[in-house]
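From the thread on structure requests for the teaching lab: each student submitted one protein with a one-line request. Submission from student K.M.:

"Model YbjN domain-containing protein from Natronosporangium hydrolyticum, tokens only."
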Amino acid sequence: MLLEANPDTADLREKVSRAWQEFARALADVLAELPADAYLDLTLDPTASGTGDASYTVSVTVADDGSLAARAVGNGSLPESFRLNRAAIADLVALGWSPPGVEPGSGDQFGITTPIAEAPRLATVLCRTMRDIYGAPHPAFLVYWSHDAAQQPLSIAPLGSARAALFPGAPPTNPATAPIPDGPELHDAMLLREQVHEVVAAMQRTTPDQLIADGDGDIGIRAGTAMVFVKVRDNPPLVDVFSPILTEIKPSEQLYGRLSELTNRMPVGRLYCANETVWASVPVFGRNFQPSHLVLAVQVMTGLADELDDRLQGEFGGRRFFAEDDHPTRDSEHFSTGMYL
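Reply posted by the TA:
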């Protein structure tokens, strides 16, 4: 199967695994050195992960007795469409989290209290929570900051490829309302776009000015009956390689289960359903941009999209991007095509 046999995915899998290992080691060191009354917050950046208003966060503080008290967000603090299902809740408990309200002061959050000597084990639990339960595809999608009880920032060692908050307590910036970058930031954004266009043009054996792009500047690449897009995001610097696998699809528990199963077999990226469309997305990090990473992501996505649109269309119906005779899963006078173009 493509997900298992393609050597490109194996290379990506190794890189992602190594990044998580480095993050876990750095996190364990920081937890072991947290001073009394200090806090450390880790949040999945919604602007990079597509989780909207949902704030998937874990927080650790040093209790009065010197133990580490960790909290993980529960459904009481999540928008309805982003709440954890029963399987995810069971997985949290299996990792060692107590259900909301069990740990003193945990409220609607999951809780763990452990001796500071167990910092490496707690770091592993936090990593698996962010990665396996909350869906962080890579540590670079995590934002962290440490502070005291008065919300004053504390200096800690870097946590691998995770990103320090831009300013204390600030949620990740929303690109839709963020100011236009200026100075070095503008230069970096322009440079990233130029690099991405050069890489994709070389893969297509053409020149950057001959690339097919839509009104938003997203580059389109046909892959059989599927379409793959390459989108450059400025804040945070990110290249999203994505595809609308199927449109006019009727969401169902069986569909969500299938997408979850397939996502778990991907080395990086995810499959999800939104607005009657099944999407596939593989991110490439814009900071310290590596052209080889984008090449791998495009190669993986073009093969993946062309394989999965046929397979999932046979299982769940819907329309493939370039298959006009596909039949939608339900009749509707006002359905949304879900197409990107």
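TA comment: Residues 1-12, 167-187, 329-341 have pLDDT under 50 and may be disordered. The radius of gyration is 21 Å.
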